[in-house]
Amino acid sequence: MIDGRPHVLHRAYDVVVAGGGPAGLGAALAARRAGAQRVLVVDREKEAGGILLQCIHSGFGLHRFGEELTGPEYAQRVLHAALDDGVDVLTDAYLLDIGPDRQVKLLSTEHGVSLLDARATVLAMGARERTRSAIRIPGDRPAGVFTAGLAQRLVNMHGVLPGRRVAILGSGDIGLVMARRLALEGVEVVGVFELLPHANGLSRNIVQCLHDFDIPLHLSTTVVGIHGRDRVDRVTVAPVDEQLRPVLARAWDVPCDTLLISVGLIPENELSRALRLRLDPVTMGPVVSSAMETSRDGVFACGNVVHIHDLVDFVSAEATLAGGHAGRFATGQHPTPDNVRLQPSTNVTYCVPHTVSTEREHTVYLRVREPLLRSALRLSTPDGRVVHERKLRYVVPAEMVTLRLRPPLLEGFHGDTLQVEVLPR
Amino acid sequence: MTSLPDHDSTDTNRATSTYLCIGCPLGCRLEVDELRGDIVEVRGFSCRLGKEFAEQEHTDPRRLVTTTVAVDGGRWPRLPVKTTATVPKAVVREVCRALTAIRVYAPVRLGDVVAHNVLGTGADVVATRDMPLVETKGEDH
């Protein structure tokens, strides 16, 4: 990508953004458009664009741009939009700390350690993949165990294949997309193993990544052992019972030289923790207001660092919101406080934002715990009075539910807590 | 399963193919019955898009191809590319194989054509990002 900005670092910025993926770039552009003069995006890679740069497949941007783009195309579009609008992008750099006096500490290849003043900051560090250690697969520790995203980067950017005979644990979209990618590169993909009784990825990816290449999907099955001295030579897989416990008596061995692990993402919140921001134990990201402001004034957050999104389009929408508020904060307009806390309840794991206002319009994102064929989304008071109810067609944990919350829906509600439930109907 | 009309004695020649709908998270299991080369019945769909998808997948399945080609002198050794239109599903692997012979040189601009009318499909293959020229090779190569 283009990063040909003048490499002059100013002493002070209106808004500094940590992370140059679609969230950070979108927030930076929105901050500029909201009146911020100097906006700086800091990215640790050698070019901005984020993880989209390695997602060379198509399917991005249908909501945002009304057309289907590949990951690199989407990344380039948001990067150019930011650069054309005068955003500064500093690559090969880390944002180390945000002081209480709004002083930001950077570490970069080009400038060493720098201290800058920032009226507002936006956290957009994205997420990290869960690894073998996160799910504690027993066995040997040979070479050949990769997270799916790392393998994606090796194949699509470095031109290196991770192996010749690959098993994949987890049926999330990254795992499915990698199954196809490796099959197209002539690698044998021996199977995808999914702990849950249903696939976690889009049905589109089940069809185009697995069916098209005759790659078997083993549901209710997981990897219970990794074997090999220097390199993986086989993995042991076993079906699981209804409590998701492996039935070792029915385990079998799958010969392979590589295991890809695609078992979810964790928001990357080292910085948020260092800043002692309030974190949501479910999303593992910062608690945010309807302005995407964290528990610290003037520190905003958006994208996968807040909660894991299914679609980059939603990340961009959230970034526009966060960046707009950060830009206005920098010019002295603080967000209007919220007056209602959203309380995830029956079959809802989390809601973002965590608070809303009865006076303004909001988009609330939420995720369900269990799939339901016919369901209803219900907002009610803690003592059980229904405030609003809406039919939903079909809900699955892998698909984020969005709720447009408008003031008329909350007419007659005067409490400070709303329970959010998704119930069968 | 409904009983078959008895006047159609050739019904035993019906071939049923199944597809998984990609339209929405519902993921309907679609069934297409074919008789002497014609679709005679589509089942299992919940909406119009599902029916259309089943018919398209049965008669002419097509895919957009995304892969990479080698690039010299760029920031990365691989350049992501895509076909400008969908190609028949049956030639997806061949398209990728054909592209292994291609090597391009940085700088490249998004949209630059790296292969015209690949394998006679009518689709071009284009770059999906800019690839700036990098004078000295980075540590990632």
Please give a structural write-up.
- The complex is a heterodimer of chains A (425) and B (141).
- Chain A is an alpha/beta fold.
- Chain A has 3 domains: 12-128 and 266-330, FAD/NAD(P)-binding domain (3-Layer(bba) Sandwich), CATH 3.50.50; 131-263, FAD/NAD(P)-binding domain; 340-424, Immunoglobulin-like, CATH 2.60.40.
- Chain A is built from 9 helices and 27 strands.
- In chain A, a hairpin with a 5-residue loop joins strand 24 (375-380) and strand 25 (386-392).
- Chain A starts with 11 loop residues before the first strand and ends with a strand.
- By secondary structure, chain B is of the alpha+beta class.
- Chain B has 2 domains: 9-59, N-terminal domain of TfIIb; 66-127, Roll (CPE0013-like fold).
- Chain B has a 5-stranded mixed sheet with strand order 8-5-6-10-9, with no helix packed on it. In chain B, strands 1-2-3 form a 3-stranded antiparallel sheet, with helices on one face. Chain B has a two-stranded antiparallel sheet with strand order 4-7.
- Classes of the chains: A alpha/beta (425), B alpha+beta (141).
Coarse structural class of chain A: alpha/beta
Number of strands of chain B: 10
Number of domains of chain B: 2
Helix content of chain B: 10-25%
Strand content of chain B: 25-35%
Q: What is the count of DSSP helices of chain B, taking H or I runs of 4+ residues? A: 2
Average pLDDT score of chain A: 94
Described by its quaternary structure, the protein is heterodimer
Mean pLDDT of chain B: 88
Distance between the termini of chain A: 49 Å
CATH T-level fold name of the largest domain in chain B:
CPE0013-like fold
Low-confidence stretches of chain B: 1-9
Question: What CATH first level of the largest domain in chain B would be assigned?
Answer: Alpha Beta
Q: What is the strand content of chain A?
A: 25-35%
User: What does the main sheet of chain B amount to?
Assistant: 5 strands, mixed
Query: What is the percent of helical residues of chain A?
Result: 10-25%
